[in-house]
């Protein structure tokens, strides 16, 4: 064992690094998530019933070629814990890792979208200032690292501050996000991946999609880290 590994083990002993999924101490070269959690994450799978449910949410947007989610979001489940840490505890490394793992698995399964650009769903500038970052940017960054598809967090802007979607009906959610996005950069004739953290009714992502299509986007692929049972 070299000096670097000895020093790392000593630091871990004094200041233990914990897994974001189970809170157990990370060992050796483990980073952010332990090996057991990486294996047991509640993956949805490409051809599952949940995938069909996700696709149906965007049936009215013909230019949406495909939709995929990485994990199933359940109350008090592992996906909820990880995304809560990402959004509210400043654990930015969780976002990059989840995006990277999602990209790796899409690539390995042969289902990587044929897109030329990844666009993250933007936060309003006030909310981003409070949080310090946009969690969807981190997901896009990780997915881009795994797949080589470039990403941008500046092409789309949220121009109106909105109340939280939590607790609203599907129609209320659609009304709440109507007209909240605007383009800041041209994307004519591009095939675009839109990436976000959680899909519930799909209202926010549908509004994103319609904004991109009005700007001349050719095809859309919608990806989220988690799909909530709704």
UniProtKB/TrEMBL annotation:
The organism's place on the tree of life at top rank: Bacteria
Lineage: Bacteria, Pseudomonadati, Bacteroidota, Cytophagia, Cytophagales
The protein's name: ComF family protein
Family of this protein: Belongs to the ComF/GntX family.
InterPro entries documented for this protein: ComF/GntX_DNA_util-trans, PRTase-like, PRTase_dom
Domain Phosphoribosyltransferase per the UniProt entry, residue ranges: 162-226
